[in-house]
């Protein structure tokens, strides 16, 4: 089973803590070379000046084993992703799980390295509608951010303060790298927010591809109810997974329906479209 296929399995239980990346990571020469070789017109020395180094070994592994691509629904955004051009894309799960060192820890559960349909639809929605969406919004949260594309899209269209949250530490480094790549400043958080009351200061929450089973939906929905009661607007992107039950659909309003590109359909079990929903409580 390849890493991309394995990533469809349910996430293993992660150890939840309050570790938070406060700044976008500044990575070493190999990262700067990678960006310079793939991003025309970026003065990477000037752009990264003064940013604190963090998780450089993880960043090295990401640089060496992913590809910077725009071949998705949001070509305005560049992302470090596992693609068919990458060796690890085709690697057997058993080979990764039995390997030693940084590659194993980075790519054992590489959810962050795949641009899932819900995330693509949400980021497209933000790029198309965000200037109106964020007109009176100060704080935006991308929950379960993965590669961070929705958070990056929000900054690109002018959102004031954007937090990308994911409980996976590797994902947090990948989000920081993708933010640098797109020349935006996104705060990255590793905190498990579902174990806390939603902050009243959050104006908008985006959630892509988190309804992968009924269990996570059962934890997520009460938290969203509390956030909605605080006046937070909530948008979900999902192609129709198990957690998107008929009862939940009664509390959602479809805002957009996007046709998925052919390559995204092939990588996602034949889903051909994805909806952006508003959670109405």
As laid out across the biggest beta sheet, the strand order is 1-6-5-4-7-8-10-9
What number of structural domains do the residues give?
A: 2
What's the helix-strand series?
HEHHHEEHHHEHEHEEHEHEHE
Rg estimate, integer Å: 18 Å
The number of strands is 10
Overall, the morphology is globular
Task: Outline the low-pLDDT stretches.
Answer: 1-54
Query: What value does the average pLDDT take?
Result: 80
Number of helices: 12
The CATH homologous superfamily of the largest domain is named Vaccinia Virus protein VP39
Biggest sheet architecture: 8 strands, mixed
Distance between the termini: 39 Å
Q: Give the CATH level 1 class of the largest domain.
A: Alpha Beta
Give the CATH architecture of the largest domain: 3-Layer(aba) Sandwich
Question: Any idea of the CATH topology of the largest domain?
Answer: Rossmann fold
Strand share of the residues? Answer: 15-25%
User: What is the percent of helical residues?
Assistant: 25-40%
**What structural class do the secondary elements suggest?**
alpha/beta
Organism: Bombus impatiens
Keywords: Methyltransferase, Transferase
Family: Belongs to the methyltransferase superfamily. ETFBKMT family.
GO biological process, one term: methylation
